[in-house]
Amino acid sequence: MTTRKVSRRQFVGGAAAVGAGAALSPTSPATAVAGAGEGGEAFSATRTTAHNVRAVGYSDLDGRGGGFKLAIQEVAGRWYLYMGHLWHRGWSILDVTDPRQPEVLNFIEGPANTWTIQMDVEDNLMITSLEQMPASWGGDPSAPFDEGVLIWDLADDPVHPRLLGHFRTEGSGTHRNGYPGGRYVHLAAGMPGFSRNIYVIIDIDDPTNPVEVGRWWVPGQHEAGGETPESGVSLHGPPFVVGDLAYLPYGAAGLVIVDISDVTSPQFVGQLDFSPPFNPNIGVHSVLPLVDRGIAVANSEAIAVRGMEPLNHTSTVDISDPANPTLLATFPVPDPPRGAPFPTFHDRGGRFGPHNTNMLYHSPFTDHSDDRIYLAYFNAGLRIYDIGDPRTTPEEVGYFMPPDPTERFGPQPPDALVLQAEDVLVDTRGYIYLSNKNQGLWILRETGR
């Protein structure tokens, strides 16, 4: 299945028409930019709806809609964006040097019947996850799949990575891993004998022969050791490493902090439980520590469509004492823009709630602002929050909602073909990259700062 393609000429022409105040026919995401602006427009399902954000560029990813996790680097003056896909097995590499004209340069085929959706880039290495794909996402539970972590060299050619090594879990594989550079990769791994994902550290000093050096799990996960697991306890990842501490988004176990000064023997430091009171399907999906300010942002992930689950959350946490993290504030829940035909985003269909933030603070090529949170919010699009005062309710200062997709690439969302923003990345030039479950890549810029 392919999407309607959007040419560079179409996009540039549409953007020019916007400047002239022309009303363009909303036949593609490019022409839909006519609705993009800064004033908080009335809702439209066929044009963008925005406040303090404008669209700069768009790519249909050569027909591979459903882009997912993002990473970026600059090499010799060129900006390269790396992307996993939800509905195509493999990874795309785009040139986004001119964000108005993103160009797909390469697509690397991945193994069949395998989730290849997660990645990270640092130190001229690309780290890609391999994981068993759930049936609800199109996986065949009776067919073979590949699993673990692939390590790719980008030093010789950032557009055509060279495969160096493969670490296998001998289990279900890995989900979202963290690689801040250096010798160790930090995994959310499904290991034999354990319930769901645990924290595993691998040594890639020799990237052709990656080896496990340490692991840690929440008590109860080691079923082979006679432990009894609790529902929902699983490391989503990425493990976020700052100095000797790893901050772990551990599902129903909440935010967990461990000491990895000895990587062979991680030690528990502190924990903040979100289940209860929130009890979402994934209690803590992501954690972004802003250690210079002594705070972190933690969020759950919306899973059920139409709000058929406990309330999700995005929260600021005091981590100044890692042994005693405490809740400071929760983020406001977005309301639909004026003119929307649904009273709440839950009524729109699809998932509504937080998903991914601009996580890649280890990268020298991503924005490291510690007073702004960029959050992909499924059917509410991109939401931007000011967290200048972490002890008060964060303030929403911008949003961007692409038009609804017009073609379906996969079985999710199962109810309605609506906007589902997935991942967000902000580079040091100020460009915001937003991926979408059944659409291409949007490149945006905040205008309200």
Textual characterization of the structure:
By secondary structure, the protein is mainly β. It has a single domain, classed as 7 Propeller (Methylamine Dehydrogenase, Chain H), CATH 2.130.10. 3% of the residues lie in helices and 37% in strands. It has one helix and 29 strands. Strands 7, 8, 9, 10 and 11 form a five-stranded antiparallel sheet that branches. The chain has a four-stranded antiparallel sheet with strand order 1-26-25-24, with no helix packed on it. Strand 28 and strand 29 form a beta hairpin. The longest helix has 12 residues. The protein starts with 7 loop residues before the first helix and ends with a strand. The N terminus is likely disordered.
Briefly, what is this?
It is built from 1 helix and 29 strands. The chain has 449 residues and is mainly β.
List the defining traits of the structure above.
single chain; 449 residues; mainly beta; Methylamine Dehydrogenase, Chain H; five-stranded antiparallel sheet; four-stranded antiparallel sheet; 1 helix; 37% strand; disordered N terminus
